[in-house]
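Ticket 4471: requesting a sanity check on a complex prediction with iron/sulfur cluster. Repro inputs:
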Amino acid sequence: MIVLEQKKFQEIEKMTTGYNRLLVLGCETCAAMSFAGGQRQVAELASAIRVARKTTGEQGEVLEEAIARQCEPEFVDLIKDEVSGCDAVLSLACGAGVQMLAERFQDKVVLPGCNTTFLGVTEELGVWSERCAGCGNCILDKTAGLCPIARCSKQLLNGPCGGSMNGKCEISKDVDCVWQLIIDRLTRLNRLEMLEEIFPVKDWSPAGHGGPRKMVREDLKS
Amino acid sequence: MRRSFKEALASGEFLVTAEVVPQKGIDAGTLTPIIKDLNDVVDALSVPDNPRALMSMSACAISRLILENGGDAIMHVSCRDRNRIALQSDLLGAAFLGIRNILCINGDHVRFGDHIDAMPVYDLDSVQLLETVRSLTQGRDMAGQQLVGIPDFCVGTAANPEADPLPPQLLKFEKKVQFGIDFVQTHPVFNIDNLVPFVNQAREKGVKLIAGVRLLMAEEASSYKDGSYPGLFIPEDLLAEIEGIKVEKSVEIAAQLIKAMREKKLCDGVHISAPGYEPKIMDIIKAAGI
Ligand code: SF4
Ligand code: SF4
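Returned structure tokens:
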């Protein structure tokens, strides 16, 4: 999932000031799973904005809506009418969702209510952590299913740095050294010899450093 | 003419290198006399590349200053701040300026430095950097294109004998050795017996092992404990021992470590560092009797 966090209320309040009819728009997929932009967070945020507006005397209506996915045009188009009736949309989706809205509603102000953080997993309720950096060429087959690109602070591909200590990363005692996790897992799998292989330099062009990425599947195009 | 570091490595004698940290700014007025003094007594001066991610003048410039003052320099090359294009370009530039020895490292993470909001690069890791250096010294860049004028480097890398667990570090060392390194400079060592597996592996591969020795200062004890110095693992009893001690005692501790390493033949030389207290390096060398 894409992990998001809602922006600080002060920032949201500042960026939405002046837009009388404001639509707070949630996304029921990753944003909801991140407890940052699902229907419930939309309702909470909308009422907080209403309360704040009452205090400051700002006029206008704060509307609420949530769609299944803001990153897909068919869901976005379902709220065409609501969007046309407002001055700005405060999107509680990831950056992709915000931009999809901006593309579909060319004349409408679209504002980001969340910070998009990383591709990760829910470790437990309220705890998410990073797993993938979307490098475009997955190497997990060589690293025991654990990603050094997303999870090693230095993106090292040939084993741990000299700062790895007792399984922790040099940057903090609270961060696991993923290379230690890789070694432990390879040991359990009886595949430690995989570590002897020299990892060649990585081609970063599929990781987005070759310019914005686009994927076309001719077989799926109508 | 004095012998080069490469010749010193080949001599089989016990080697001494010392660290000089480039200053923040372009005034090398304080560093120059230290360099001049140390040049007379060491085999080479080792110049870190923005150590601990603290921004300072380039290691290349200070390495050149060392050469101009009659010494030999080991320029550190860190993967943290440059991509593969910049690394290769700077390596060629260094060779052009007469720098013959390089130490290839990953580099401490930016979070330890004074620009913690910087974007770390790590396009290559230290193993891949060694492969790149080998390619340059064979006349080709990473894209396979031919160089006009081929650099010649005496190549070193770093290793941490104090790392826990040790086997992954040994395995990584094994990878590095495949790219034809000449020497390995270790992180500072305090449990000198931890050098044994490394020195055995290095000798088997024909690589010289230069053991790191660091001056421990009482006033820095709390930073040693809280992890502010990545890769510096100091045993609890030694941390207790340095509490409140005077610098003379610190010098003695470092000198004793050198003597013990030398006596036990645990290394082919030592690399002495005393960041911020460089003039004390001379005292350590004298006290160690080298
Ligand atoms: S190797 Fe690349 S695609 Fe695979 S998990 Fe890591 S960042 Fe993601
Ligand atoms: S300690 Fe481990 S995770 Fe952290 S930078 Fe070093 S190798 Fe990567």
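Notes from triage: Chain A touches chain B through 28 residues (CB under 8 Å). Leaving this open until the requester confirms.
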